[in-house]
Amino acid sequence: MNCVLALGFFDGVHRGHGSLLRRAVEVAGELGVEPRALTLDTHPDQLLLGRTKFLLSTPEDKERLMKELYGIGMMSLPFTKQTMLLPWDVFVRDVLAGQYGAKHLVAGYNYHFGHRGEGRAERLKDICRELGIGCDVMTPVSLDGIPVSSTHIRRLVAQGAMARARDFLGHPHRLTGTVIQGRGVGAELGAPTANVPLPADWQQPAYGVYCTKVRVWDGGAYAEYNGITNVGLRPTFGPSATPVTESVLFGYQGSLYGRTVTVEFLDFRRPEQTFPTPEALREQIRRDIESAREFFTVSLSPS
After folding, report:
1. Rounded to whole angstroms, how far apart are CA atoms 301 and 290?
2. What stretches of the chain show up as alpha helix (H) in DSSP?
3. Rounded Cα gap, residues 216 and 254, in angstroms
4. For residues 288 and 303, what is the distance between their CA atoms, to the nearest angstrom?
5. CB 188 within 8 A of CB 179
6. CA 51: distance to chain centroid?
7. How confident is the model at residue 303 (pLDDT cuts 50, 70, 90)?
8. Cα 136 to the center of its chain, rounded Å
9. What pLDDT, in 10s, does the model give residues 69-125?
10. What's the mean pLDDT in 270-288?
11. Which of 41, 89, 199, 229 lies most in the core, judged by the most C-beta atoms within 10 Å?
């Protein structure tokens, strides 16, 4: 397969990654070949350091974001001990040019590859010249003087600063998952509730209530609803063993159990709380819904 490859882990598919992906699509159009983003199936820290790396995107969301925002497909390279030990020049020659048929490579200024990360931007340019393939090394992208990075965005998400995280991402922080059985409070309020477990390695937002957009998928198509989402352990009814997102969708009718939904986090409203009675919780949910409806009315109003 002849292609142009954008190289990186692309966690969050943020604005900095966008510069690589747009360039790959542009060059692929000029060369008449397919653009592809080549990522790893495991973050290197998982294997190198033996610890969980909290990520902004599940593999499924990463792939969807690339396609939706930049029109580029994603390929995932297994990151194993064998991959990790490949010399940098062998990785470019045998894997990128040989296995994937790359005619042009696009990487970030801080892209490291090969054994011990010995492959750097200058080495990538040099070997591409030797192989007769094109190469672009993209410069850093900053916002308000702050470099756009997955590390900085993870910090914002952990604080619940969703509007600011969206500025750096170029899209809302999101989670796609399958709806599981909940405790039925939403149904009592006359609105379906979509409960989605949080993956163990996903960067959780601060526990609390958010204004959200929720996509309900049907094959490759979806319907989108405004809503509110609680992230946390639902302490009023006895804390859950693991955190979940619990969303109330405005205007949705029908069962959501077993459906695939994407929750997009837009605005933090309040921290998660323990309420003295179920009635107190229901009253607070009503106030949350009211507050969220006001948020969407204001945010959707023409400026």
Report:
1. 17
2. 15-31, 44-48, 59-65, 81-84, 88-90, 121-131, 150-159, 162-169, 185-188, 278-300
3. 11
4. 25
5. no
6. 20
7. very low
8. 25
9. 999 999 999 888 788 889 999 999 999 999 999 999 999 999 988 888 898 988 999
10. 87
11. 229
- Report the alpha-carbon distance of residue 38 to residue 73 in Å, rounded: 9
Mean pLDDT of the residues in the chain: 90
Question: Cβ of 49: how many Cβ atoms within 10 Å?
Answer: 10
Paired strand residues for 224: 215
DSSP label at 94? I
Domains (range + CATH), the chain: 3-146 (3.40.50.620), 172-300 (2.40.30.30)
Retrieve residue 206's tokens. Answer: 């601060």
Tokens of 129: 């010249």
Token pair recorded at residue 94: 């045998």
Query: By the 8 A CB rule, do 106 and 20 touch?
Result: yes
Give the three-state DSSP class for 213.
strand
Angle ∠(49,55,60) on CA atoms, nearest 5? 120
Q: Could you tell me how far CA 131 lies from the centroid of its own chain?
A: 34
| Bridge partners, residue 264, by sequence | 174, 213
**Euclidean distance between CA atoms 283 and 286, whole angstroms:** 5
CA angle centred on 113, ends 111 and 114, rounded to 5°: 170
Question: Distance between CA atoms of 66 and 37, rounded to whole angstroms?
Answer: 8
Please, are residues 166 and 266 in contact by the beta-carbon 8 Å criterion? Answer: yes
